[in-house]
Every structure is written in C-alpha cells, then in structure tokens.
Amino acid sequence: MLEVLGNPRFRAIWYVVNVAELTRWMELLVTSVLVYSLTDSALMLGLVLGFENLPRPIFSPFTGIIADRFDRKKIWVSSMVIKLGAGAALFLLLFSGNIAPWHVFAAMLAQGISRALEDPARRTAIFDIVGERRVVNALSIDSMSGTMGRMLGPFAGGFLIEHVGYFWPHYPGYTWAYVAVVTMHVAALLMAIRVIIPRVEREWRVEPIWNSLGDVVRAAFSHRQLMGMLFITIMINGLAFPARQFVPAIGRDHLNVGETLVGVLAAAESIGQLVTAVILASVGSIRYHGRIFAIGAFSVMITSTIFVWSPWYAATFAILVLSGIGLSCFGTMQGAITMRSSPPEMRGRMVGLQSLCIGIGTPPGVLLMGWLGDVIGIQTSVTLNALVCIAISVPALFLTPLVTRPSQPPPVTQPQSGPA
C-alpha cells in the first residue's frame, strides 16, 4: 500500500477521488431523502438510484471504447463538468422553491452519464500508473476513497437537512446541503485539471464500433472465470444492492429516527468496507481473487435478507457494518478480476463491460423492489429479492471455475472483426 501511495501520479488521482466520492454519497442521500419526503413512495425513492444507474447499460460499452482510444484525463475532467452542472441546477431549483421529483431524476440521470464516462477512464489510468503487480493494492485504495465518502457524505447530508435551516426561504436544509455539494464539485474539478495521467500507446484498429464491442464480448465469453464474476455482478446489482437505497424508508418508518441518524445508517456499511479495504490494500499478493469475490458477494446477499427486519437501530447498524466487509471484498476483486482477465488493448472496453453488468441490473432491480415495497411492504420486498438473488447466483460457483482456480490471464485469441 505504501508503495502505491508513494507514486505521486496515483496520489494525485486519489486526492480527487476522495473529494468526488464524498460529494457523490452526500448528494445521493440528500436527493433520496428529498424525494421520499415529497412523495412518501418507495417506488419514487428507488427511482433516484435507478436513474443514476440507467446510463450504465446504455453508455458503458461505448465509454470503454472511448477510454481505450482517447485521452483519459480529458474524459475524466469532462465527466466532472457534467456532475457540476447537474448539482448547480438542483441548487437553483431548491433555492427558488420549484423542485419536483422529476428534476431530481433528471439530475441523477446526468450524474449517471458522468459516472459511465469516468469509471473506465479513471480505473484504466490507475492500471497504467501502477501496473499489474500492484493493481489490487491500488484498487483497494481507490475503494477506500469511495468508502470514506460513503462514511462521511450521508452523515453530512443528513445533518445539514435536519439541523441547518437558515436564510433560505425554501427547503433550507436541502439548499445548504447543495451549497456544500456544488462547492465540492468545483474543488474536485479544479484538482482533476492538475492531474497528470501518462499517455500509454495502445494498439487498436480502425473498425466499426459494433465489431469492437463484439471483440470484447467474445473475449469475456472465452474466459469462464470472468463470465462467472459478471453473472453474479448482474444478479447482486439487480436483486441485493438496491436494498441500500431504501435505508431512508427503513430509518424513518420502521426505526423512527431523523435525517441525521438515517445518514449515519446509510454510512454504516462504509465502516466494514474501510477496514477490509485497508487489509486488501496491504497484502502482498492474492491468487484466488474469485474466492474472495464470492465470499463478499454472498455476504452482501445474506445480510440484505435480515437488516430490514431489525427493530433496533444499533442492531441494524451492526448488520450493515458486516455487509460492508463483504461489499469491499466484492468490489475490489470485481475490478481486479476484470483487468487481470483483459487483453491490454481492450482493458478499457472490458471495464466498460463490467460497468454494463453493474448498470443493467440496478434500474429494473430498484423499480421492482420499490414497486413491491409499495404493494407488500419494503421489508418483505427487500428480503424476497435477496433470497431470489442467492438462489440464482449459487449455480455460478459450480458451473464456472470462479472459486476453484487461481486468477488467470486472458486466453490468447485472434480478433474476429474485419481488417483495418
């Protein structure tokens, strides 16, 4: 870990990610509580996360190609400009008192587009900087940034909503929260402009975009460990992860706490994530990435079936901390398996495919979970979806070598697309 942090180019990226992730999680909590307070609907609450993730399955395959072919710093900075614009628009709407749920959904859609642009560019830039030998350590540190943001951002957002209500005539707590959000977006953008990302010569052919996408899909299908990981990724993002979006409903309606404690509850997983990320960032080498990935994935699924039923705030908090340990294992090994299994010339596209698998499950997942929550209750809905996720995901452990073999490099294959 110290070797990776000793790299000044990696540190520069890491500083930006710390600010950006703090902003992201604060903004997600603020918009989620806002929409739930306006609508009292689990479905509308779920749509906040649904719209944020909707651009992933649509744009991620193409943004992976962009990351492989163009300047990764310019892509990253462009994504931050989009985030700043969306945040500034919501601030103005809150200040004027004209906010409506559809405004939040539109802003979350823009944020999702920015993340679809950012993820392949930033993660492949990290790989270019630290190399294959230290990619797990670097991704663990990158994950720690998201964890710290998830730990502090929801608490800060909930505190501002509940306790700071001065000067603004409309939605004062929410407006102050967005003053902080916009300020941090500006800070992250200015820091990113100063980052130096090395230019790496990558081989790629001038070819139709669908041929390029076909190459990366064929490469994924030829690597059975990668296929097992991507299948479980789709399942868990569609049937287990959406449960976290309904923490504001669980906190307000079942635990009877205010916005500050809702924010603390939303941050609970980050404590387990942080401890685990530090451990993963410090290990010398890992052979069986798939085993750690699977342990993390099924830990998240199991805790999703039970945390919504706890009648005690402290117990709910503790269960979510345990879930965060699994979440860190899942997320870090997910990125490591993806990049270790990818040919160098299509690494950005493979990260884009991973992002596609993340995004393809989340929008329908939160829609289903939110709709069922309005019909049968959010607790029953969350548990039912998580149990289905476990049942569907278990066969992937036996039908692929995800947990039985060490992580393997990609097989050598000839591209199937036409000539340049």
From TrEMBL:
Asked if the record carries the keyword Membrane, the reply is yes
UniProt KW keywords = Cell membrane, Membrane, Transmembrane, Transmembrane helix, Transport
Location(s) in or outside the cell: Cell membrane
One GO term in the molecular function aspect is: transmembrane transporter activity
Q: Which SUPFAM superfamilies match?
A: MFS general substrate transporter
PANTHER family in UniProt: INTEGRAL MEMBRANE EFFLUX PROTEIN-RELATED (PTHR23513), STAPHYLOFERRIN A TRANSPORTER (PTHR23513:SF11)
Q: What is this protein called in UniProt?
A: Macrolide efflux protein A
Source organism per UniProt: Geodia barretti
Taxonomy, top ranks, is:
Eukaryota, Metazoa, Porifera, Demospongiae, Heteroscleromorpha
